Amino acid sequence: MDYVKNSIVTFCKKNKVNLIFLAVCLLVILVSSFCASCVQSNGFTVTVTDLRDATNTGSITTTKANEDGSTAEVETAVKGNVVSGILFVPKNASKDNPLPAVVLTHGYLNNREMQLQNAIELARRGFIVLTVDRKGHGNYNNNDNKNAMMATDGLYDSAKYLYNLDIVDKSKIGISGHSMGGYTTAATLAADKDIGIVSAGLMQAWSSFMGAGADVSVGFLKAKDDEFFFTTKENGGTISRDYLNTATAKKFLGLTPEDTIVNKGIYKQTAEGGVLVTTQGGQAVDGTFRAIYEIPGVHPQNHESVDGASAVVNFFYNAFGTPSGHKYLAESHQTWWVKEMFSLLGLIAVIAMIFPLVGLLLKTRFFKTIAVGQQVVNENGEMVWVGNKPIDPTPLRGVQKNLTYWIGAIAVAIFSGLTIRPICTEFGEKFFPNTQLYPQDTTNWVCIWAVCTALFALAVVLFLWAVNGVVNRFRYKENAPRFTENPFAAGRIPTGFVGLAKTFLLGIIAVASVYIVTYINWQIWTVDFRIWTLAIKVFNIEMLPTMMRYALFFGIFFSVSALFNEGFRAKNIPEWATILINIFFNIIGVLLMISIQYGVFTTSGVLWQKDMALGYIVLIPMVPILAVATVISRRITAKTGNIWLGAIINTLLFTMMTCANTAASFAYVLG
Predict the structure, then answer these.
(1) What's the distance, Cα to Cα, between the start and end of the chain in Å?
(2) What span, in angstroms and rounded, lies between the C-alpha atoms of 440 and 433?
(3) Phi, psi for residue 428 in degrees, rounded to 5
(4) pTM, full prediction
(5) pLDDT digits (tens, 9 = 90+) for 592-643
(6) What single DSSP character describes residue 425?
(7) Cβ-count burial 297-323 (b if 16+ within 10 Å, e if not)
(8) For the CA atoms of the chain, what is the radius of gyration?
(9) DSSP H helix total and E strand total for the chain
(10) Do the bridges between strand 128-132 and strand 71-90 make them parallel or antiparallel, or are there none, so unpaired?
(11) For residue 170, what pLDDT is reported?
């Protein structure tokens, strides 16, 4: 026992820095998650529950007219079902004090967590809220093997589930969804017309209204410039920012073509048409109404917007009034963004946790052989290697070597940006169609883009290596081999097959630890780690085999990236500057295309590349992913002299994040 105790004490003393770093990361995760949960639950006055495969039954009685003019009461069974949802219940909800309820759902490629902004703001005002995954998204497996864009199940069954709860006011049930969830909202309103479970519906970022009962309040929530809402094809040239001036919008509100729409105005529906009414905060409008909320921003900003949350709250306040036992809170009084900031802090901490964890494991007897070298700062402030030198430590100097690096970096950056559109719109489906083994619509084409970029980078480096070889023969004659540097030297594995196997194992342990913390954190606080669409979240374990299949492709990209991240070592500049330069070239191609697309769009209202309306939205999270991956690659290699450990960590972590946060057109299978 003394030997073990002494060994632990010695280990802790030798690894004091890593232990403190790891403890700080875990403490930040704990504190940030507690605070995020506190905000999400409105100071723990709202109970937040992760619902999985929850069902209930009930019935609704409606009056129907017979052919002879008489009426009859008809009882219809109501079968509620929530496959994957997050339920928010204010503490004062009870059978004796039923509260109004709202079901929220997401758009194509998203998940239930993308409506947390609206769920938090409604719940803290006294509404019972249920935010749900749609089939093929999040934790709702696509067992019917429908195209994920058309797998709209989930919303209506969830509204029925709320209807069957005795804590819900059955006369005040609302629904709202974003984008394709807006379509589902419209479809649900149409399907419910003769039944009457839903009392109000707000369509976010969806422009088509399929009709609802006369006793239902309906609204549109749209961004000023929306990539999909009321496109030019729909109205002979009219663009999203002109929607409020169209006859279509005026007809929806019950107005004549000569009338002027008041943005965010509440129009009561009368026999004479729509009449603008004056409303008071928190008081329900007498009768049904129509409303259009146009807010600043673009399509994906609807669910990450103070204006968006304000519109959602305003709509349901006007539809149902202030819930019993609660006070009116101004629509602008919002806290969801505070929760988002704490979740971001947790995201940073859980990724940062990788570094001290790897550092500690590298000091163990089993893994220490992986660390074949280490980068340190010498007395001149330069980065040098201590121990075995598996990569070329020669800094970037001289015209020839500078030209080699900068030409190669610029070429790859340009290629990575210019190939996004053709791969997304033409070659993605052709060369990598959705199958049972690879069921994720957008992940497929992103895989092709990543592999093509990696292969092009290899080709460029091979070409420049060959050119340098020829140039060196002329410059240095028989001494040419001394000056011709091998750009692939960083990829050598000095420890052989066993070392490579241990490297894989360590990478798996590092990423598994991130997800173990994520799952434990979720069980305790019902919060994960995220900012907008960039998230480390819980997922159904049946997704794991699919993730590993995609990891084969992303592994090519992150391995090549790790190799060339180490190929650049400038003279007399600090490591942080080297990292920033590498980040710049890794993200600039994607960032430039996205910037042009939205720069043109927000200034003119017309997309630069109309067929990439969805494509660039998909790639927005890739910008921070590529930046963080660069940091992981450089710093892990600095600890070990082994580029493969960082490549494996990046591959597993970012493949799992990508696959968990998008949609699937086939059921996940072991394969």
Answers:
(1) 48
(2) 9
(3) -60, -60
(4) 0.93
(5) 999 999 999 999 999 999 999 999 999 999 999 999 999 999 999 988 888 9
(6) I
(7) bbbbbbbbbbbbbbbbbbbbbbbbbbb
(8) 28
(9) 20, 14
(10) antiparallel
(11) 97
